[in-house]
Design a protein that fits this description.
This protein is an alpha/beta fold. The chain has helices spanning 68-80, 108-113, 116-126, 156-168, 179-191, 228-239, 252-282, 309-317, 342-358, 372-455, 460-474, 523-533, 564-567, and strands spanning 2-6, 15-20, 26-31, 42-44, 54-57, 83-85, 89-93, 100-107, 133-139, 146-155, 172-177, 199-204, 209-215, 218-224, 296-301, 321-323, 331-335, 477-484, 495-505, 538-550, 553-563. The protein has 13 helices and 21 strands. The chain is elongated.
């Protein structure tokens, strides 16, 4: 069950109880209670209705309000007669003047880097009053690299007063709402799909009003110190009695009523036009997020008390002005409010019902001004109930399968042991395979080198003939060996490498051993290198080494790169 109390309601304790029955939609019951008696309704203890949710709205303090003594008397009377009181969730809609609105701007990059900067800036704007208010923030759509943030706050004493009235109604305070949020959600549910341009919503109450400008997800809200009842009282006092209005053929009382209605509509339209103009003029200096000209102005609330108000306002604004009456949709009235109060209550019920359905889905419409202490207490209450239920379920659910999982643990341990043994065996095989692959790669390189030599076997006579002619020109030189040189995989492509070893007859003077750099002055060494380098089949000399091993004997060891093109 959900009880809805409206802080802006006028009369002797008006409120609405909303409930959802099994197999049926939502039902709304408007109720009125005499001042000082309380608003708790007694129902039979064996009532068969199944309540899935409910809402409640506290009355205006000036109208007498709700008194805990009256509610307590009602509850004690209910207990004495064998009846019981309702229980459920209590929601309250505040008066517009109770919500203080501020706006500030943040850089989009700063907000993306640290979302906590919005809370920090809000506390800076609240200053020393942060501990005395319940507040919430709402970020707009980024425009031009900046984000407009709407800061709303409610004094804790006003929020506590609303909670006390909800408790006096026999329900637990769950949410305290901004009237602008309720109206916005109700409007979007009924008219947003048909509107493609910015819209202006004017909710006119008895003493206070709310102006809401909507354009997609962008929103601006202003509280107006303008009320239909105030204007009616002012005009009635100015016109005076029926004797002051004269005219042939008409009852003086009727002439007075007609004149008063016309004057009320004109005065209300003039003051509304002034407030609308002031709203757009205050935002004209903003370079971003500037309110655009609305395509239509929707009036609702107590505006129906002034029949010609819409036409008078349209003439002043130069915009179409339409009356808006929300539809409850899948809900219906079981006990309807009075005719003059029904449009306003329908708007509130429609918005609150939509918020109830969308709670926890959209933070923008889930703003709540419940005092922080009560909010934490409510969260802990739900958390404790949830944890206790979860603990009980976990305990009951864990006992039956405990032995089963114990048996599975032993089976799994055996499987893990066998898998470890298999993994170790496969690792040994992998090591052996890697060693075999390494040896195979070395053998493949040797085979490729031998294939290269074999493919050039027809070219060797030309190379050997040139090498023989070279040794003959040098004189007193002969070969000892000719074989492939090095690993073919480390050589560049396009050349064959061979190692040539032999001896030269040289003078007996000089060192008995040494490398080429020690024998560079030997004429026969220079002659041999020059003759070998002139051979057309030799691309270059990769390495040369000379050493004296015996007197008069000079051994040489040359590594030659043979050009395949030259040998063809």
């Amino acid at each position: 069950m959900l009880r809805l109390l409206s802080m802006s309601a006028v009369g002797g304790g008006e409120w609405v109880e909303m409930s959802k029955e099994r197999g049926r939609g939502w039902r709304a019951r408007w109720k009125g209670a005499v001042e000082g008696v309380g608003i708790v309704e007694a129902i039979p203890a064996n009532a068969s209705e199944s309540m899935a949710g409910g809402v409640a709205l506290p009355t205006d303090e000036r109208a007498g309000g709700l008194r805990s003594s009256g509610a307590g008397a009602s509850r004690s009377m209910a207990r004495g007669t064998g009846w019981t009181t309702h229980s459920g969730a209590g929601w309250a809609v505040l008066r517009p003047s109770e919500v203080v609105r501020r706006e500030f701007w943040l850089e989009e990059t700063a907000l993306q880097a640290d979302p906590g900067v919005m809370r920090f800036e809000a506390l800076q704007h609240l200053g020393s009053a942060a501990s005395d208010v319940s507040w919430t923030v709402r970020a707009g759509v980024p425009q031009g690299g900046r984000v407009r943030v709407e800061l709303r706050s409610v004094a804790l004493r006003q929020a506590e007063r609303a909670c006390a009235r909800l408790e006096a109604a026999g329900v637990a305070p769950e949410r305290i709402l901004d009237p602008a949020d309720v109206l916005e959600v109700a409007w979007r549910q009924s008219l947003e799909s048909t509107m493609t341009e910015p819209s202006l919503i004017l909710f006119l109450g008895d003493r206070e009003s709310v102006l809401i400008w909507l354009d997609g997800t962008a929103r601006r809200v202003r509280n107006l110190a303008l009320g239909v009842r105030s204007v009616v009282e002012e005009v009635s006092a100015r016109i005076g009695g029926a004797d002051t209005v004269s005219g042939p053929g008409t009852n003086p009382a009727d002439r007075l009523r007609v004149a008063r209605d016309e004057e009320v509509a004109a005065t209300l339209a003039a003051r509304t036009h002034l407030e609308v103009s002031r709203f757009f003029s205050t935002a004209v200096d903003q370079t971003t997020d500037r309110p655009g000209r609305p395509g239509c102005v929707w009036v609702c609330g107590e505006a129906t008390k002034a029949p010609d108000f819409a036409a008078a306002l349209a003439a002043r604004l130069g915009l179409p002005v339409r009356a808006w009456e929300a539809s409850l949709g899948d809900a219906e009235w079981l006990t309807e409010p009075p005719l003059v109060r029904r449009p306003e209550w329908t708007l509130l019920v429609c918005g609150v019902l939509r918020l109830w359905q969308r709670r926890r889905e959209d933070e923008a419409v889930d703003a709540c001004f419940l005092p922080p202490v009560r909010r934490g207490r409510l969260a802990r209450r739900f958390a404790h109930a949830t944890l206790m239920g979860a603990a009980a379920l976990v305990t009951l659910a864990a006992i039956p399968p405990a032995w089963h999982y114990h048996r599975l643990a032993h089976e799994m341990a055996d499987r893990v042991r066998r898998l470890d043994e298999e993994v170790q065996r496969l690792q040994r095989i992998d090591v052996e395979n890697r060693a075999a692959l390494h040896r195979l790669s070395a053998e493949r390189s040797r085979v490729e080198a031998l294939h290269g030599l074999a493919s050039a076997r027809l070219r060797w006579p030309r190379f050997l003939g040139g090498l023989e002619q070279c040794l003959e020109d040098v004189q007193d030189a002969w070969l000892d060996g000719l074989h492939p040189a090095g690993d073919a995989t480390t050589r560049g492509s396009g050349a064959l490498h061979v190692r040539v070893t032999g001896c030269l007859l040289a003078s007996e003077t000089g060192p008995h051993s040494g490398a080429l750099n020690e024998l560079e002055a030997e004429p026969r060494v220079q002659a041999l290198l020059a003759q070998v380098a002139r051979l057309p089949s030799i691309e270059r000399i990769e390495r040369e080494r000379f050493a004296r091993t015996e007197p008069g004997m000079l051994r040489f060891d040359l590594e030659l790169a043979l050009s395949e093109e030259a040998l063809r």
